[in-house]
Design brief:
The protein is an alpha/beta fold. It is 46% helix and 15% strand. The relative contact order is 0.14. Bound molecules: 1,3-dihydroxyacetonephosphate (13P).
């Protein structure tokens, strides 16, 4: 057992806190900036990340931040490496280490996540820069005949190889098998596929001797496809999600940190809250590791302008506070109503 990684996992799962995923590649962040007319340069991306990382309330509700290669090498406006800035606020710096989902050979429309070549050396370098944990995202599409068996197996195998290398390097691996929301599938189909994928992932982790006590799982919630004709209520999503996790995630895993996956920010908060309020056994901590659901309102408020920094930081802190409450099952509509920030209704 590695005491270092177990204690990092505990820190990440502190009561009432969750993780901020700020690990968009420069290409993805450029698309988000373009949509708002914000110029995307190495400097503007750094300014944006520094704005997020220094939000006054951030450390109260955010235990860790996932960065990307460009960001972990950047320094704040006052010359402090961003990883060090986070650590000085009591936030564990993390790093996304996969190199993206690439087309899977002989499997039209499916992908396999790459990044294993040279990973041992990269992990050692990131550890030296202060990272305490890492992330790798596998992407699973639902469609007719998809996912295929081979797609699930190769992605699970790669997740386990990555997780084993992380633990060797004393980094906590966040294992993220994301079943996408895109498509017209039902909530039942999402549950079936997610269950199958989780089963394959935990089999691969066990075969490759990954210590479940020193990893976090980052799954999707069980929701209908975005083009499904039958929407699901918050209660239905919560019940299906917790049931699927109970059937497929061993109790030795200390924490489940959900991705938001394109849900609106308020809905992602409401779902997390409903899951935590359900009765019955929950052997893991259940919290958030949101990207868009934490950042969208802040990015919109910031719009690339220095004079908007305070409003943007308030927007991030507000979402983090609401999600922190949801991680304890204590989120209420009044928390949104008392905010000075206005959101479109979900
Ligand atoms: P979203 O919450 O925007 O899905 O991002 C989380 C993440 O880290 C995806 O890999």
């Amino acid at each position: 057992m590695n005491l270092d990684t177990e204690s990092t996992a505990r820190t990440l799962l502190a009561d009432g806190k969750g993780i901020l995923a700020a690990d968009e590649t420069p290409g993805t962040l450029t698309k988000r900036f373009d949509a708002l007319g914000i110029p995307s340069t190495e400097q503007s991306r750094r300014t944006y990340r520094e704005m997020l990382f220094t939000a006054p309330d951030a450390a109260t509700f955010i235990s860790g931040v996932i960065m990307q290669d460009e960001t972990i090498r950047q320094k704040s406006s006052t010359g402090t490496p961003l990883a060090q800035l986070l650590a000085s606020r009591g936030i564990v710096p993390g790093i996304k280490v996969d190199t993206g989902a690439k087309p899977l050979a002989l499997a039209p429309g499916e992908t396999v996540t790459e990044g294993l070549d040279g990973l041992r050396d990269r992990l050692a370098e990131y550890r030296g820069m202060g990272a305490g944990f890492a992330k790798w995202r596998a992407v699973i599409h639902i469609a007719d005949g998809r996912p295929s068996g081979p797609c699930v197996i190769v992605n699970a195998h790669a997740l386990a190889r990555y997780a084993a290398l992380c633990q060797e390097a004393s980094l906590v691996p966040i294992v993220e098998p994301e079943v996408l929301m895109d498509g017209s599938h039902s909530i039942e189909r999402c549950e079936e596929v997610t269950g199958m994928v989780l089963h394959a992932v935990f089999q691969a982790l066990s075969e490759q001797r990954v210590a479940l006590e020193s990893m976090l799982l980052k799954p999707n919630m069980i929701v209908p496809g975005t083009a499904s004709s039958r929407p699901a209520s918050v209660e239905e999503v919560a019940t299906a999600t917790l049931g699927c996790l109970r059937r497929n995630v061993p109790a030795a895993v200390p924490g489940i940190v959900f991705l938001s996956g394109g849900q609106s920010d308020r809905l992602a908060t409401a779902h997390l809250n409903a899951i935590n309020r359900l009765p019955g056994p929950k052997p893991w901590k259940i919290t958030f590791s949101y990207g868009r659901a934490l950042q969208d309102a802040a990015l919109e408020a910031w719009h690339g302008r220095d004079d908007n920094v305070k409003a943007a930081q308030e927007a991030l802190s507000h979402r983090a506070r609401c999600n922190g409450a949801s991680s304890l099952g204590r989120y209420t509509d009044e928390m949104e109503a008392t905010s000075s920030i206005r959101y479109p209704t979900p």
